[in-house]
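So, could you explain the following?
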Amino acid sequence: MSQPNRLDTGGLIDRSTPLRFTFNGKEYTGFHGDTLASALLANGVDVVNRSFKYSRPRGIVAAGAEEPNAVVQLGQAEAEQVPNVRATQQALFEGLTARSTNGWPNVQRDLMGTIGKLGGKLMPPGFYYKTFMAPASLWMTYERYIRKSAGLGRSPLERDPDIYDHINRHCEVLVIGAGPAGLAAALAASRSGARVILCDEQERFGGSLLDGQELLDDRPALKWVEEVLEELAANPEVTLLPRTTANGYHDHNFVTLHERRSEHLAHCAPRVEGRRQSRSRLHRVRAARVVLATGAHERPLVYAGNDVPGNLLCSAVSTYIRRYGVVPGKRLVVSTSNDDGYRAALDWLDAGREVVAVADARPAPDGELVEVARARGIRILPGAAVVEARGEQRVTSVRVAAIDIEAFRVTGASETLDCDTLASSGGFSPVIHLASHTGTRPSWRDDLIAFVPNLPRGMLAAGAAGGTFGLAEALAEGRDAGLEAVSQAGFEGAELILPAVASRRDGAAVALFQVPHEKPTLRAPKQFVDLQNDVTAAGIELATREGFESIEHVKRYTAMGFGTDQGKLGNINGMAIAARCLGRSIPEVGTTVFRPNYTPVTFGAIVGRHCGALFDPERYSALHQWHVGQGAEFEDVGQWKRPWYFPRTVNGKRETLHEAVMRECRAVREGVGILDASTLGKIDIQGPDAREFLGRIYTNKWAKLGVGKVRYGLMCKDDGMVMDDGTTSCLAEDHFLMTTTTGGAAGVLEWLELWHQTEWPELDVSFTSVTDHWATMTVTGPRARELMSELTEGIDLDREAFRFMDWREGKVAGVPARVFRISFTGELAYEINVQAHAAMHVWKVLFTHGEKYDLTPYGTETMHVLRAEKGFIIAGQDTDGSVTPEDLGMQWAVGYDKPFSWVGQRALTRSDTARQDRKQLVGLKPRDPSVVLEEGAQIVLDPDHPIPMPMVGHVTSSYYSPTLETGFALAVVKGGHQRMGETVYLPCVDGKVHEAEIVSTIFLDPKGERQNV
């Protein structure tokens, strides 16, 4: 298939390697070395997308990461779908399939485009806020249609077939950007012997030299680039990362790099020697010094019709001609405020196409390129600019008129020029994003008409990124930055002789952002500032009229800079327009906040291999295989797989959850049961100040807890709300073992370390997680002592010798063990702790001896029933971050008279925590014993109250008890402690209303006699 806009020669593409690709269902041909954008332009594709709000036809504008329009959906199969890929950065490969992200039924004839054209004036900034406020009940309907009409791409519906990598790197010097300044910096730094990483977001290193005509030492600049890269590649201390974008700069020179490893090869990463290759990789780099050599982005001019396909940046025109051998049109008009616009005109002329005119906003342009253009017969219109581009799906003509920049008005009659391509240049903006990611704000320089970075500590800038635009000056600045970086990192740099560069004389640029129109901005044809989000100059002016003076507020009201390009082209123009409308200077208005990521990064790259089991690993106790062998059903508790219940098969029928739990509950209450409690968090606490630390972190007292004793404790956040509970045992005067909830173990350890390291570093105490080291088996029930006596050595199990809340050391089944008299069931119980590797032996011996007692394993569901019968809480289920110890009725676990304030004590003196109408933990007994209340069910006092009913609480735990022969529940109710005996009501979704009586939280054995037998 012919490529009408492709030159026969020139560019850095390989014409011997044609590549077929498909765009919007039509097959085209490009060459190896093309981007998708250059191949589309070569094939004469004008409309590549539709805009976000008005659904206007949009064409390619730029040639790099700043492209706002050519955002495509990539992929053939469903699993391969990748949304919002910039065509200007996507390398062409054989079989590439892409389509526009907007446009129905197709991008050429879009229904929403008709609506946008007819109703565009009815959709100013804030349109959605102002229009869809009422009735509120219809918002969900509005939202569905708004999202359907405005989306950019879609996520795949099937599992991603690719894998992604993370890698941690360290270096002395990280050079970001491989243009002339970056290459010079990397070369100078590498000769010192320092570790150097050089990254660039493009397919090839070279930056602006890839499409320039400059000579270095009287040779083509690419010769110098090749020699530099050859030397760098041969240096073992240098890492070269093309196709790698520095997306985030963080504190202490921590930089994240996104490397596209195989996205240039196929839709799915290929296999090499049978092994899957990663699609992309996230490098987490810690650098002693960072050299910012990210270059600059050209700013377009803002004028009427500047979004019609055929409007391009001047630098993009040169890039497509010089690098890709593509001339995106026949007849060119240039509108510029600086000498760089002439480069596009001269490149266009060199390609054998017609340059209609150059409209130069400067009254008397006099640079070197201006003189060359005049000598070659290009028509130059000084003091003029394109005020309007015309056309529907391609530029057909432009109107040029003389303008007064200071007065912001058109001063003469316009002239219409026929053309199909319009290139504009409003100057260059240094790419300062990374330098601003840690909060530093850039500074405005009038001489450059641009913001330049205020560099954070440890960063140096070189070349256009710092405001140095001359090639010779950029090379020198890059070299000096590289040498300074290695010097600061403790290395001695070597001399680097730079190539000779012929200087170019440029005339002074003028500050032109928005081109005036004969009509006021609010009435003129649309002049787009943010091409992706359809933000216009009129929208910004309207926002300032409506009182939005902060540029951050203007951004949010208009959506300027919200797109995938993050306003790389439009934001400076938008700030300048806002400044003009507010009567302020650009530095007074300032910039919006720059945040990572610089360009979009896929979730795959962010996650890397940390997905599935590697993201949320499944943890198993040492007894897991036994549970599997017994047919246990499991539930997830934190990351642990815990036995939920142990169904048996009776007469060929497998027990249901309810049947199994009823059997397991009876076994514990009437005989003996056993629970694998190994997953409980265990934290070993040691040090002379361990006891003091416990007194500060727990609500109750620990000063007098003796060796061999165990105490229950509550732990509060600093807001006074219960965060976790558990027991802590005194192993020695300076040695304690803390247990936590299964799901809260990591958080509690982090909490202990936080307070120790930040608030009480003077305390000599250390914490070690030993959860995986110890297996815990809870033997509980009236016959527990009988079973334990058969296989315990060195421990007197007599009631008086081994009392409740004591612990002893001895042997169980011949294995050294710690045995704790702790009960979470209210029955006689022994918690056996042995080293995890011995757990299976002890467990099996227990069942061998327990056969005569009908020893029954039980799971977490039975554990919940048993503990709830005793009113024992589970943190995170019966508490929700808004419950104090007093709300739980656990004042007995609070030591208000401790000498040192414990965490949360001060918060409990607030009036809010002393209110009598706070939600408080109570028991609920349904009037109908067969009813099991739904957990989370809302509680009301008057079931006949009109909706919305005042809700006074909710159910936190609810079960059926075979021992009590009734359903029962725990709940939090406003003022519940004073409502004992009252009746409350629980409306259900199905229309039923259940009655329940508020009772004590302790349903069974209120005196605790069973656990003390």
Q: What stands out?
A: The chain is about 20% helix and 30% strand. The first strand starts at residue 14 and ends at 23.
